[in-house]
Amino acid sequence: MTGQQSCERGGFGSRVGFVLAAAGSAIGLGNVWRFPYTAGQHGGAAFVLIYLVCVAAICVPVLFAELAIGRATRRNPVGAFKALAPGSRWFVVGGLGVLTGFAILAFYSVVAGWTLGYLGKALLGAFAEPLTHEQSVAMFEQIEGAGIVPVLLTGAFLLLTALVVRGGVEAGIERAAKILMPIFFLLLVAMAIRAMTLEGAGEGISFFLKPDLSKIDGGVFMGALGQAFFSLSLGMGAMITYGSYLGANERMPGAAVSVAVADTTIAVLAGLIIFPTLFAAGGDPSAGPGLVFVTLPTVFGKLPAGFLFAIAFYSLLVIAALTSTVSLLEVVVCYFVDERGWKRERATWLVTLGCFLLAIPSALSGTFLDWQSIIFGNYALTIGAMLICLFVGWVWGVPAAVEEIGRGGAVFPLAAAWGVIVRWVAPVAIAAVLIYIVATGNYM
Ligand code: PFF
Questions:
Q1: End-to-end alpha carbon distance in the chain
Q2: 397 CB burial (10 A radius; 0-12, 13-18, 19+)
Q3: Model pLDDT for residues 376-414, shown as the tens digit of each residue
């Protein structure tokens, strides 16, 4: 039991509150980097539509399920399954989550390293003048394609993450985020307004908001579902961990919905910046993981005090990414502390080192990064979420979970619908998408 204590309460004081920690985990590069490029690869608005449906109909219910497991057990993902289904093999689902978290951190930190590189460029004044699309592509090459540079930036970001997790100063980080994230939001609104008023922006706005329903296929569903789980930090147990931050008297449904709304709003705002800017500058929406990094520099020079704007934007993006990498590392470290009895310090450094080694191929090769992102970011999280639904729906049981969700006097008017979703709708829908993907062989 002492091991658990050191994990659950080692970093966050219970006063920090669930919404901050969970929103910090959810909002990150998934919203600003991954959502726009994935939408761009899957035809734009049609993807956005399916994404919103997935968030509301499947992901929010899964968020409730994870939080309920977390609050009921107050343990790491592996320990939580062991506690609710003693003697069974369900803990393997928790183990899959821990492994997935490790693998996600290994490519996420590469992209977070790029943002550090861009912050450095911004501080050196690289965005004072408007850049053309070609100049911006060349700048991305200097960071992403420069051999040792991205490896060092990845290492630097992992080091930052490890220092936070080891020192248990998450509470400080989350409190800072409480002030900084609203500023980030306002900055994004200002950038979206500028982007949407650029000459030639209209085409970008329609690409992002006017769905062409004929573009919807199984690949769009898979992409949207995976991205929605990724963005809300679901399917690997991060929200199981954060469920333990919800006090018994706090109302879960409202808190969970706030997190989902905040996360989705930021993603949509990012799209409203990227696509108008991209179409105005003449880029390709299906460019992949480099999309956002190549697109944004062309807009800073067109903003008032663009140079300061760029510094503020990349600083805040680094912090948003840090609150997400902290949650990823925390899940893995927590597992080693709780289940394996490691010291927190040792667990933090060994996991970080392992992660760095796994990150090197992604730092050197965009193709490797892309595959990591698809295998772990999409498939592993989606399969994890399906198993979590099956567990809550059929093993732990809907009545016990509903009781947990309603604890603290919360009203949960949609309890009956939620039960049907976790038992039937979500697992069947996810399985159908996976079967379709395997049958058509269209894995991207
Ligand atoms: N939700 C984070 C983002 O959108 O940037 C990424 C992430 C964090 C995924 C934590 C999964 C996780 F457990």
A1: 43
A2: middle
A3: 999 999 999 999 999 999 999 999 999 999 998 899 989
Pocket residue to mutate for ligand 1, from 55, 230, 325, 378, most atoms within 8 A of Cβ: 230
Q: What is the 3-state secondary structure (H, E, C) of 7-58?
A: HHCCCCCHHHCHHHHHHHHHCCHHHHHHHHHHHHHCCCHHHHHHHHHHHHHH
Whether 201 contacts 272, CB under 8 Å: no
Q: Which two tokens stand for residue 82?
A: 């062991």
Please check the confidence at residue 110 and state whether its pLDDT lies above 90. yes
Among candidates 227, 195, 197, 199, which has minimal Cα distance to 40? 227
CA pair distance 81, 100, nearest whole angstrom: 16
pLDDT at 443: 78
Would you say residue 16 has pLDDT above 70?
no
> If you average pLDDT over residues 5-32, what whole number do you get?
74
Mean pLDDT of the chain: 93
Cβ atoms of 283 and 294 closer than 8 Å: yes
- Sorted by where each begins, the domain ranges of the chain are 15-440
Q: Please, are residues 183 and 255 in contact by the beta-carbon 8 Å criterion? A: no
Supply the Cα-derived Rg of the chain in whole angstroms. Answer: 21
Nearest CA to ligand 1 atom 3: 30
Q: For ligand 1, what atom is nearest to the CA of residue 238?
A: 13
Tokens 């919404």 locate to 19
Of all protein residues, the one whose alpha carbon is nearest to atom 12 of ligand 1 is: 233
Q: Out of 3.40.50, 1.10.4160, 1.25.40, 1.10.150, select the CATH number for domain 15-440.
A: 1.10.4160
376 touches 104 (CB < 8 A)? yes
CA–CA–CA angle 158, 245, 413 (5° rounding): 125
Residues 6+ apart with CB under 8 A from 293: 33, 114, 118, 140, 143, 144
Listed residue (233, 236, 253, 243) closest to 75, CA to CA = 243
275, 207 in Cβ contact below 8 A?
Answer: yes
Q: Is 73 exposed, middle or buried (0-12, 13-18, 19+ CB in 10 A)?
A: buried
pLDDT at 12: 52
CA–CA dist 256, 33 (Å, integer): 23
Report helix, strand or coil for 220: helix
- Structure-derived torsion over alpha carbons of residues 107, 108, 109, 113, reported in degrees to the nearest 10: 100
- pLDDT tens string 40-79: 999 999 999 999 999 999 999 999 999 999 999 999 999 9
Which residue out of 324, 334, 373 has the highest number of ligand 1 atoms within 8 Å of its CB and is therefore the one to mutate? 324
